[in-house]
Amino acid sequence: MTNKQPPDITKRAFRFAIRIVKLCQHLDDKPGVSRTLAKQLLRSGTSIGANLEEGKGSQSEADYLTKCSIACKEARETLYWLKFLSASEILPANRLSELTTECNELVAILTSIVKKLKERRNG
């Protein structure tokens, strides 16, 4: 079994999670809807790296594929919440552009990892 991730994906996901936490702290200072959305964003944005870390200790290639797939799904959900915050004008688009770009890149990397793992698995 080979659970090799690109060397920086886990680090990138960790740094991304820190930025998400800081954004959510800002949102949590606002009353109402912002707090609810912050909780959704916090869960998905920090779950990406957590699942990748879990994948490092996977018991099989199938388990590793599952963890990477979950990380990819969480990245996609995070991207949704970032776009939602911008579209609903809760935060200005320019405030979210770097995070959105990074999240798009994480989705692309994770999609590639999952695709390669599935191809290798299916022979």
Describe the protein:
The structure is a single chain. With 123 residues, the chain is mostly helical. It has a single domain (9-122), classed as de novo design (two linked rop proteins). Helix content is 82%, strand content 0%. It contains 4 helices and no strands. The chain has helices at residues 9-28, 33-56, 61-87, 93-122. Helix 1 runs antiparallel to helix 4 (93-122).
How is this fold's topology laid out?
Layout: H1 9-28, H2 33-56, H3 61-87, H4 93-122
Helix pairs in contact: 1-2, 1-4, 2-3, 3-4
Please give a handful of descriptors for the protein shown:
single chain; 123 residues; mainly alpha; de novo design (two linked rop proteins); 4 helices; 0% strand
Order of helices and strands: HHHH
Label the CATH architecture.
Answer: Up-down Bundle
Q: In the CATH scheme, what's the topology name?
A: de novo design (two linked rop proteins)
What is the total tally of β strands?
0
Which ranges are low-confidence, i.e. pLDDT below 50, for 5 or more consecutive residues?
A: none
User: Structural class of the helix and strand makeup?
Assistant: mainly alpha
Q: What's the overall geometry? A: elongated
Helix content: over 70%
What is the average per-residue confidence, as pLDDT, rounded to a whole number? 93
How many angstroms does the end-to-end distance come to? 14 Å
Quickly name the level 1 CATH class. Mainly Alpha
- Main sheet makeup: none
**How many individual domains?**
1
CATH superfamily heading: 23S rRNA-intervening sequence
Write down the Rg: 15 Å
- The number of distinct helices, counting runs of at least 4 residues, comes to 4
User: Beta-sheet strand percentage?
Assistant: under 5%
